[in-house]
Design a protein that fits this description.
The complex is a heterodimer of chains A (391) and B (256). Chain A is α/β, with parallel strands linked by helices and 391 residues long. In chain A, 32% of the residues lie in helices and 20% in strands. The C terminus of chain A is likely disordered. Chain B is built from 12 helices and no strands. Chain B has one domain. Helices cover 77% and strands 0% of the residues of chain B. Classes of the chains: A alpha/beta (391), B mainly alpha (256).
Chain lengths: 391, 256
């Protein structure tokens, strides 16, 4: 069991971790999530006694790490896969770590087998790929057969087979009653591996709950409803009916509707009563990634902007029409991923945030955006066509 | 955490990297080869020496002439043993395994020192005997007064230089920074300070200037050094201890 109480770390004026309190319990895989620079690695280092906390404390089994008796037999950690002397053989690297805690050399060969590095045991780790480095780091963490395991980004650089292996390894370690604490950026991977989550942003605790609770608390499940493209009036009509029945309706970029607050059968009934045909009515379960993105939106330190390519784009030949640039979802638009919170209205879904100011000189910034609603002129045309067809 | 386990582990670390063999090998070869060469030159040049120089002619010290260059390889050895941990990031793994900073650092220093001492002593004896063989009729015997002390002292000098470098590297962490300070210091600055009249009084308290006194059997005429061979070595030990304690205190205080 890892327990942090009021853990704070300051580097000069910068506070990397602030007043962090959490418990990592044995028997489950606990995921540790947070954007880049949110203090995950700093926290890991403080757990291992490498960095001294400015305030608060973190203990393993009741002891601060530096006071832990025979620490390497109790705690195994993978912090940085590249943190090995490149000129040393893989086996010697593990051997010197084993000798530190009085682990017999036989165990070194065992863990080399477990991580699948027997073939390269006598090769210098300089030539290892990132994935092989991760395997070596995992081997080092497993050496002492410890009850508490910490892994910082263990699946970085691993191939799909390796990722699956790590996932199963973590689960089996936890099933044996060990405490497993894993940080990762790969949400899909975390959703499959972890049962419990600790999420931090800007060094502060954002969430400490089970994965399922986390997803349902931080994203609304919604229904996607699509009315015939050919008849926008039906869409308007359905929107009105659903809103009246207490649902929340938001248009999606491709013309579908995102409905929250109403169960699927009720949506179907309402559509039937309003005499609107449906092309799609599908339940949508938010993913961990969406829930995570939503929660950490405000806590991201390093955010990408649209590549303006100022002065880099080729001059178009005179008379040529510039290719319309379709925006890629997520590029330069904050919050595209987040379904609106059911309780507080939130931001309209799929509306580009920070839209280019009028008169922006950059041609790319002014690239035509697909209309949020259906384009008006075409709509009338199609509507007339339909009426013609109906006659 | 038994210290013997850490010592064993540090021995594995030190023997499993090629820089150990390269730096120590270079120290041996350079010291012996240069010492032998200068012994040959000194023998051929003996007749041209002044009367005073002939009286204070110190065959033992001459055979150690290679130390001035060989010590640089010892410095590299000492620096790399410690700073390798930092430059590779291995330090975190090591300290996670040995949370006791003192046990970690001093076991590492002890293993590297023992190795440096064995190599240094062997180099010193080899330099002496080869040098004396080259000096022919002007040679010193190992049984002459003060000679055995000087030869063993040569081994101690090389060991202490390596230890001092380990202490400095523990304080500075970066191999480039440590070498960038230590190499020019011991190769140039210390020699200049120790030989220029104005700074001589200060310069002779520098670790290498003081420590190399142990290898002298005959004192030059104009020498007014206020300490003897063991006193000089004591000064060097004090420097080394200060560097290592500084390294330990910083390691304990600093985040890894």
């Amino acid at each position: 069991m890892i327990e942090a109480v009021g853990l704070t770390k300051r580097y000069g004026a910068k506070t990397a971790v602030y007043n962090l309190s959490f418990q990592v319990r044995p028997g489950t895989v606990t995921g540790f999530l947070g954007p880049n620079g949110s203090g995950k690695s700093t926290t890991m280092r403080m757990i291992l006694g490498l960095d001294a906390p400015s305030q608060g404390q973190v203990t393993i089994g009741g002891y601060p790490y530096r006071k832990l008796p025979n620490a390497p037999r109790q705690v195994g950690a993978l912090l940085d896969a590249k943190a090995v002397h490149g000129g040393r053989h893989a086996r010697n690297h593990l051997l010197c770590l084993a000798q530190l805690s009085g682990i017999p050399a036989r165990r070194v060969d065992e863990v080399l087998g477990v991580v699948g590095l027997q073939e390269v045991a006598k090769k210098r780790s300089k030539g290892f790929s990132l994935g092989m480095g991760q395997r070596l780091g995992i081997a080092a963490a497993l050496l002492g057969d410890p009850q508490v395991l910490l892994f910082d980004e263990p699946v970085n650089g691993l191939d799909p087979e390796g990722i699956l292996w790590v996932r199963n390894l973590m689960k089996s370690l936890a099933a044996e009653g060990r405490t497993v604490f894993v940080s990762s950026h790969l949400m899909s991977e975390m959703a499959l591996t972890a049962e419990h989550l600790i999420v931090i942003g800007r060094g502060q605790l954002l969430a400490d709950m089970s994965v399922t609770d986390f997803i349902s608390a931080n994203s609304a499940d919604f229904a996607r409803v699509r009315t015939p493209d050919t008849d926008p009036q039906q869409r308007e009509k359905l929107t009105a009916a659903l809103t009246e029945a207490g649902g929340q309706v938001l248009p999606e970029q491709d013309g579908a509707l995102r409905v929250t607050g109403l169960p699927l059968p009720r949506i179907s009934d309402l559509a039937h009563d309003a005499d609107v045909r449906l092309w799609e009515l599908s339940p949508h379960q938010a993913s961990l990634e969406e829930a995570y993105m939503r929660m950490t939106q405000g806590a991201v330190d390093y955010r990408s902007t649209i590549d303006q390519r100022a002065g880099l784009q080729e001059q178009l030949p005179p008379g040529a029409v510039p290719q319309p640039q379709l925006p890629v979802p997520g590029q330069g638009q904050h919050g595209w991923y987040a379904p609106p919170p059911p309780q507080q209205g939130g931001q309209p879904f799929a509306m580009p945030q920070g839209a280019p100011a009028p008169g922006d000189a950059n041609p790319y910034a002014a690239a035509p955006q697909p209309p949020a609603g259906a384009p008006a002129p075409e709509m009338t045309k199609r509507a007339t066509d339909n009426e013609d067809a109906a006659r | 955490m038994a210290a013997t386990q850490v010592l064993k582990s540090e021995w594995t670390k030190i023997r499993s990297v090629s820089s150990t063999v390269w730096t120590l090998g270079l120290a041996v070869v350079v010291t012996i080869a240069l010492g032998t060469l200068i012994s040959i030159l000194s023998k051929n040049d003996y007749d041209n020496l002044s009367r005073e120089d002939k009286i204070t002619f110190d065959p033992t010290f001459i055979s150690f002439a290679g130390m001035s260059l060989g010590q640089l390889a010892m410095i590299v050895f000492g620096v790399l043993v410690v700073s390798n941990e930092y430059s590779t990031g291995m330090i975190r793994t090591s300290l996670a395994a040995v949370p006791q900073r003192a046990t970690f650092l001093f076991s590492k220093v002890a293993v590297a020192t023992a190795l440096a001492f064995v190599v240094g002593l062997a180099t010193s004896f080899a330099s002496f005997f080869l040098g004396q063989a080259m000096l022919g009729e002007y040679r010193a015997q190992i049984g002459d007064p003060g000679v055995l002390r000087a030869v063993i002292g040569g081994g101690l000098y090389m060991t202490l230089i390596a230890m001092f470098s380990m202490g400095v590297a523990a304080m500075l962490r970066s191999p480039m920074l440590s070498l960038g300070i230590l190499m020019p210091f011991f190769f140039l600055i210390s020699n200049i300070l120790g030989n220029v009249g104005a700074t001589k009084k200060v310069g002779r308290y520098l670790p290498d200037q003081a420590g190399s006194k142990i290898m002298q059997v005959k004192t030059p005429f104009d020498d007014s050094t206020p300490y003897g061979p063991w006193g000089g070595l004591g000064i060097m030990v004090a420097w080394t201890a200060a560097a290592l304690i500084g390294g330990y205190l910083l390691l304990k205080k600093r985040d890894a």
